[in-house]
Amino acid sequence: MIQHATDRRGSAFLREVIENTPGGQRILHCLQCGSCGGSCPNGADMQYTPRTVFAMINADEREKVLTSNTMWCCVSCYFCTTRCPQKIPITDVMYCLKRLAIRDGLAKDTDAPALAKTFTNLLDKYGRSFELGLASRFYLFNKPLAMLRMGPLGFSMFTRGRMSLVPKRIKNIGQLQAIIAKARQLGGRS
Amino acid sequence: MKYAYYPGCSLEVSSAAYDVSVRAVAELLMIELEELDDWNCCGATEYFSQDELTACSVIARNLALVEPRLDQLIAPCAACYLNLKKTDRLMAEDAAMGARVNECLAAGGLSYQPGRVRVRHLLDVIHDDVGESAVRDKVVRPLAGLRVAPYYGCQVVRPAAEADCSEYPMKMDALFTWLGAEVVHYPVKAHCCGGHMTQLSEPMAFELIRRLLQSAVEYEADLILCMCPMCQLNMDAYQSRVNGFFQTSFRVPVVFFTQVCGLALGLEPTRLGFGKEIVPAMPVLEARLGAAPAASSR
Amino acid sequence: MAERLGIYVCHCGSNIAGTVDVEEVARWAGTTIRDVVVSRDYKFMCSSLGQQMIEDDIGQQKLSRVVVAACSPHLHEKTFRRACANAELNPYLCQMVNLREHCSWVSTDKVAATAKAKALVYAAAERVKWQEPLEPMPVKVNPNTLVVGGGIAGIQATLELADAGYHVYLVERSPSIGGHMAQFDKTFPTLDCSACILTPKMSEVGQHENVTLLTYSELEEVSGSVGSFKVKIRKKARYVDEAACTGCGICTEKCPRRVIDHDFEAGLGYRKAIYTPFPQAVPRIPVIDVASCIWFDRGKCRACEKLCPTNAIALDQEDKIIELEVGNVILATGWQLFDSRKLPQFGYGRLPNVFTNMEFERLCNAAGPTSGKIVLRDGKTEPESVAILHCVGSRDVNHHEYCSAVCCMAALKFGHLVLEKTKAQVYSFYIDMRPNQKGYEEFYQRLLEEGMHFVRGKVAEVTDATRQPAERGKLIVQVEDTLLGRQRRIPVDMVVLMGAMEPQPDAKEFGLKCGISCSMAGWYTERHPKLDPVATMTDGIFIAGVCQGPKDIPASVVQGAAAAARVQGMIAKGTVMIEPIVASIDEKACSGCRICNNLCPFSAIEFDGEKKVSRVITALCKGCGTCVAACPAGVITGAHFNNRQILAEIGGALWDASPVLEDARAGADEPADEEAESALSAR
Predict the structure, then answer these.
(1) What is the SS3 assignment for C275?
(2) Chain A residues inside the 8 Å CB shell of B245
């Protein structure tokens, strides 16, 4: 298969990432120093290190980035953000990439979007998280066999009184739901 | 001093030991906690993966609920602490975003002026506001001979360096020195436990946890002190899974720093949630500190 | 008789013409402003053709006043004044209007900018009619020079001036001259021994008949202006009589009090309470450090005093204030090293075998604490692997945005020394390699040949947190090898941090003391970054060396020599012309209240006790106008800025304002009688 190296003009993806990340303008200052890739606890497991992702963003490689596993490996430890000599909000860029990947259905080989959705569905309904509900729904719909491995852990948590069997709902759930509805209507930065 | 208090969902049941010990220790140290009325879940990282405005608005509701006469809010859970602080900062630095969040809050009849509430963690409140001499005065049972590894995790010290140094924090080290314990060298003290990675990729998550446990063993700590429910869950509840995965045989108790702090201040283990941890802590505590008065190992 | 005005509106290429309709302004000026005889626009007024145009018009059109509407007077006031002078029109009868920095460069609205340009031109035109011919005043240039800072830049400047036959006072804060260069082992790219090339110059300075060396001294006060500065220097007490001391060193040898030397030895070695900083110190006269001396602490010991063969110890010595008069001042105050504890991820101060660049220099130096052996913090173990980290504190918006210019080369130098003195592997971890001067790229190639390893990646952390047994007992350098796109953990024994150069902690206040300012990064501001790097905005004050910005030794030497050349030029000329824009007091009208005396920021007003009047010392006056405004009787005039001129300028700016103001302006133009006229002119 013959590959042509011709680029398209400019990087629309760069603009998109800058616009959808708080403080994103700093991305233009990336020196490609590698502090982020060097700091990342999961750096060795990512398909592309965070620094590589910035190079790819600059080169307009939207699909490659959004189908990669890089942002799904991010644990939000903020080492990269703290150490970046150009004050690029790298962790926030990772969140932006997550949002874009989910929105455009490009998230590949990861259950993270499902975990996020399951969690927020419960939050929308009750205003509080509900671990048993989260775990059971998430595992049932995404990796049912893994549920078996979780059995012993669940049991030891339960016997020590660390697991609630019923969800708790906040009193003013209507207020929270109104706020969430408004946010959805206005459309957040994503 | 009076502070508003945001326990966070985990402190209700799964990390009740943290809530119980926080309240007990705060009371002894004259830190008055007023729980926010009808607070909601901060959403951890899950809303940020989907929609930034919704994430901030959900968090901001809690900031808006802080009574006008209180201007400081303590959040013991690292994720909650980070979310509350991050949202407050974002609203202050990005006026347009701040306005939109307030528009959403208005739909619920609320509003929040960014910068009004200062978000704190209990550790820096004890270290900075209560201070060394006040703490030392209250020590009833010095933790002599107890070797502790102070584990800070990430989100309290990063990205905001307000609570403690982002790279090599020392406030928990200092606190436990005041309490008479032997604080071991723990170079991974601010490295990540993996957060919710345990649900997504066990190999990656278990490796992060293994590094923390291994370091504690290398430096011969009796137990690990932590200050986040997620960290405690990962290092404690998943310890046997980690052992299974790596063929290791870790048996390191992981408890909340307020639990052990409470012991030093004279409280009984039952009042501090001991026994809720999966890898039991009482055996090593009793071995080092002697049996607690009228205490059981459950 | 009406004046004859020439108006010249410059396009400045498209700088002004791009926003201001310059042709329209010139046309309008010619038809609207009174007394305008010729009004032109031209592409580049500052060009020789532009200047020639003015000169020709003055001659042919018999112009008595000239207005040039162009860029900032900072740039071309002298140019146009000279053009007028060439055509025999007094240069102070020329007024510049800034249509660039004050108009076209601060607006994108062409209509508004053109309207503003018109108002500015009218204002200048009205003003210039009331301007008077003035003559600059010659001031003799004192041939003595003050050089502050005895590092390589200051030494070079001193020697150039002294060799030319002029006297130099060299003031240095520490007990010896030499600066940071005296601490280095070798210099890149030649690998010359630093002390070997520096000490001959230091000796020369110490022995030169035209140099007064004032070490362990601080510049405390500067007053006056170019050609005649008065400076006050505090010579701190050494507690040693310099005339009697022979530099034999017995006092230092016998002193019982040993402390860590944080300065010269970078904290790796010791010195005594009475000490000279290093063996080749100039002058070779020791100093007692009051903070560590037993006598000053608890009144005991005095061993040095007892043992000195020439009775040179003087424990009752006091600081001395020396007042000097010089014609020019050269600041060569150097730099300090970034504190690497501000970057805790590299472990400096916590992990023993992490060293700063300065500490490593001292290790390598044959006269250093380990006699030149590269060993770990325990003082004996040789490392098997060394990691050199670039950009520690530099190129980092959290600390210093700038690049420190020398660290890449110094890192290569360190690599060479490790390979030469040990059997260790050595790694450089860099973001970019910057060997950019003569011989530097070749030096990089040399190190590649010698087998130094290069990894392109800024180190994320240096840690003792091991993940596998193979890492135990080592320092782990965790980095992304960006050329591979992969994270690497490299176990080493020793880490060297290439810390940034930063300005001296008191650089800003010191600069203000001398009347100069600093950039945002803290380096002294030069007159023009490209074309005038050693002069400052204050005439007579020059800067040289790293205090102007990070640079290597050759560049510091060049700047030291350049500053000296500028000073020599001034001294050779003999006089410097002071602008006649000064205040003057009407002694007949002065009541002797003396309010102005203490208000003058330049101490340029004296009181004549006999006549009981105040008088301006013209040579010191900078024309700031404070006294003019403050005089309750209004008897002080600011030349070139008198009330008549200022009011006319305001009137001109409001040329298209309401008729009420028209009348007021007209009123200002026509005095009721001669007395009022003279009163008005005098104000």
Answers:
(1) strand
(2) none
Query: Own/partner pairs for B140-143, CB < 8 Å, 24+ apart?
Result: B140/B264, B140/B265, B140/B266, B141/B263, B141/B264, B141/B265, B141/B266, B141/B289, B142/B179, B142/B180, B142/B264, B143/B176, B143/B179, B143/B180, B143/B181, B143/B260, B143/B263, B143/B264, B143/B288, B143/B289
Q: What is the pLDDT of residue B297?
A: 39
| Mean pLDDT for all residues in chain A | 92
Q: Give residue A147's pLDDT band: very low, low, confident or very high (50, 70, 90).
A: confident
A contact test, residue of B50, B102, B235 with most A CBs within 10 A:
B50
Question: A119, B44: Cβ pair inside 8 Å?
Answer: yes
Q: Tell the CATH topology of A12-103.
A: Fumarate Reductase Iron-sulfur Protein; Chain B, domain 2 (1.10.1060)
Walking along chain C (683 residues) 10 residues at a time, the average pLDDT comes out as 92 94 96 94 94 96 96 92 96 96 94 96 96 93 98 98 98 97 96 96 98 98 91 98 95 96 96 96 96 94 95 96 98 98 97 98 96 96 98 98 98 98 97 97 97 97 92 96 96 98 97 92 94 92 98 98 98 93 94 92 87 89 91 94 92 82 60 53 49
Indicate whether A190 pLDDT > 70. Answer: no
Q: Does B191 touch chain C (CB under 8 A)?
A: yes
DSSP per residue, B71-85: -EEE--SHHHHHHHH
How far is the C-alpha of C458 from the C-alpha of C444, rounded, in Å?
Answer: 19
CA B279 from chain centre, in angstroms, equals 19
Block residue for tokens 């809720």? B276
CA of B122 to nearest chain C CA: how many angstroms apart? 24
Can you give the residue ranges of every domain in chain A?
12-103, 112-185
Q: Which residues of B touch A168 (CB under 8 A)?
A: 12
A contacts of C485 (beta carbons < 8 Å) = 37, 48-49, 51-52
**What pTM, to 2 d.p., does this model score?**
0.88
Is 70 exceeded by the pLDDT of residue B215?
yes
Report if residue C188 sits inside a domain.
yes
Number of domains in chain C: 5
Residues B32, B69 within the same domain: yes
Residues A31, C460: C-beta atoms closer than 8 Å: no
d(CA B237, CA B232): 8
Say which CATH number the domain at C18 has. Answer: 3.40.50
Assess whether B251 and B171 both reside in one domain. Answer: yes
Range of the domain at C162: 145-227+324-334+504-578
Q: At what angle do helices C152-163 and C194-207 cross, to 10 degrees?
A: 40
Number of domains in chain B: 2
The range of the structural domain enclosing residue B275 comes to 139-289
Q: Which helix (H) or strand (E) element contains residue C382?
A: none
| Residue C108 near residue C19, CB atoms below 8 Å | yes
Which of B58, B92, B120 is at the close of a domain? Answer: B120
Whether B176 is covered by a domain: the verdict is yes
